[in-house]
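Below is a filled-in request sheet from our internal design queue. Each sheet records the structural input a requester submitted and the sequence that came back. We keep these sheets so that new team members can see what a complete request looks like end to end.

REQUESTER: design group, bay 2
PRIORITY: normal
MODE: inverse folding
CHAIN LENGTH: 66
BACKBONE (tokenized):
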């Protein structure tokens, strides 16, 4: 789950995640995609560039607790 807000400045950024992914899949560079989306703060850009979904990794351990 992509964070709703930037951890540093608190700006709402989650609504741009899918559009960012579409631009990346279309062959845009991360820099160009973020520029087009208007993500200018370096802290917010960091959120997009360093995000890694781990939900599939965690779901492997779904019944292992206890």
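RETURNED SEQUENCE:
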């Amino acid at each position: 789950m992509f964070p709703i807000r930037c951890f540093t400045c608190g700006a709402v950024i989650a609504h741009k995640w899918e559009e960012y992914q579409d631009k990346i899949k279309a062959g845009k560079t991360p820099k160009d995609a973020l520029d087009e989306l208007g993500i200018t703060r370096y802290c917010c850009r960091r959120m997009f560039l360093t995000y890694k979904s781990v939900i599939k990794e965690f779901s492997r351990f779904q019944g292992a607790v206890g």
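SHEET NOTES:
- Residues 16 and 37 are 7 Å apart (CA to CA).
- DSSP finds four helices and no strands in the chain.
FILED BY: M.R.
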